[in-house]
Write a structure and sequence with these properties.
Strand content: 15-25%
CATH superfamily of the largest domain: CO dehydrogenase flavoprotein, C-terminal domain
CATH topology of the largest domain: Enolase-like, domain 1
Bound molecules: flavin-adenine dinucleotide
Distance between the termini: 19 Å
Number of domains: 3
Radius of gyration: 21 Å
Order of helices and strands: HEHEHEEEHHHHHHEEHEEEEHHH
Oligomer: single chain
Helix content: 25-40%
């Protein structure tokens, strides 16, 4: 029998120290003023009304950073799937654009000290291919679930992170993997920060900086990403769960996406369930523990309402209860698949 009552084992620890809406690298027309691009901007110029006045297409990361320094009003654009939606809806009128699509150094990946160094320009379509799935299965699964094919062909990893939408499918995977970002700044500067710090707003992109690479540990163990949408076919996540096994540390890492402004890590549930896995015997676990893990994760991410003053315990509204059941089912299934 699994230990009973995981839900009553004390307050859950989660990485939700900051509820600030995370990063937006957009600068609106109001912020940039009417002047548009600074003089001397290199590259192609367009004159489309309501769109950027200048489009620069650098071929290296440092050139892109230099272009942003030369045109402080410019906005970087990768696949344009998020940015152009904002332009088309009138929310954004960038005075100038720095296109990242011609920077070949950030469109692939390389191995580095037991890690994969992923270029920010990797598209969802590329990450969904089998060779990438063999490397980082959960990120490949998230990439395959990220919208319809035309979005996956254009949308990039860096854009997904910089947009920091709660429904960004790559984000819970990167949180569970404890990935870090290599950020390129002026003068060839590079700094490295955890993805979770950027998503929590603890460490923002500074003016003129670009996400260059994402460093992901290669764990050589099963990983699962599952997503629930409110409809059939491609759609934004109502809830998503990433579970990765870390056999070297006999650990489980889990992150829940889409239900909060940033991915949530139910750390107590991770530690609790890792102790119930027979790591030396084919990673066996009893089914009751899988069920309890799902409930534990869901209760950690969507806690019970606080008792009222008269001592009665209020109920969540039906929609919240449904979301909590969904998270529980996703977490149970994700761990079950990772261990099977
Ligand atoms: C119809 C539709 C469906 C979608 N469905 C999903 C879905 O199911 N799941 C999902 O996760 N997403 C979905 N998206 C969102 C979108 O496709 C992703 O977020 C995509 O990964 C964004 O990448 P991009 O290259 O197109 O970003 P862009 O639109 O080019 O840029 C987005 C933002 O990131 C900034 N930026 C881009 N690259 C960098 C960089 N290297 N450094 C710093 N800042 C940068 C830009 O300045 C901009 O502010 C959907 C979008 C649409 C339009």
């Amino acid at each position: 029998m699994p230990p009973s009552g995981p839900l009553s084992s004390g307050p859950a620890k989660m990485c939700q120290s900051c509820h600030v809406r995370p990063v937006s690298t957009y600068r609106t027309a109001a912020q940039v003023g009417p002047g548009g691009a600074a003089e001397g901007a290199a590259g192609l110029t367009t004159s489309a009304p309501q769109a950027a006045q200048a489009v620069t297409l650098p071929t290296t990361l440092d050139e892109a950073v230099a272009a942003l320094a030369a045109m402080p009003a410019a906005v970087p654009v990768a696949g344009g799937t998020d940015l152009m939606a904002a332009v088309n809806s009138g929310q954004l009128r960038p005075a100038a654009l720095v296109g990242l699509g011609k920077i070949s150094e950030i469109r692939g990946w390389q191995y580095q000290d037991g890690h994969a160094l992923l270029g920010a320009g990797l598209t969802h379509a590329r990450m969904g291919r089998p060779d990438f799935a063999a490397l980082i299965p959960a990120l490949a699964a998230a990439a395959r679930a990220a919208g319809p094919p035309q979005i996956r062909n254009a949308g990039t990893l860096g854009g997904n992170i910089a947009s920091a939408s709660p429904t960004g499918d790559a984000l819970p995977v990167l949180a569970a993997l404890e990935a870090t970002l290599i950020i390129a700044g002026p003068g060839g500067a590079r700094r490295e920060i955890p993805v979770s710090h950027l998503l929590a707003g603890m460490d923002m992109l500074r003016a003129g900086e670009l996400i260059g690479y994402v460093r992901v540990p290669l764990l050589h163990a099963p990983q699962v990403f599952l997503k629930a949408t409110g409809r059939t076919g491609p759609g934004r996540a109502m809830a998503s769960v990433a579970v990765v096994l870390d056999p070297a540390r006999r650990g489980i890492r889990c992150a829940v996406g889409a239900i909060a402004p940033m991915p949530l890590r139910p750390l107590d549930a991770e530690h609790w369930v890792a102790q119930l896995i027979d790591w030396d015997n084919n990673r066996a676990i009893v089914p009751e523990a899988l069920n309890a893990f799902g409930e534990y994760v869901a209760a950690a991410c969507i806690p019970d309402p606080a008792p009222a003053e008269d001592g009665s315990v209020p109920q969540h509204p039906p929609a919240v209860l449904h979301l909590r059941r969904t998270v529980a089912a996703l977490a149970r299934r994700a761990l079950g698949r990772a261990l099977s």
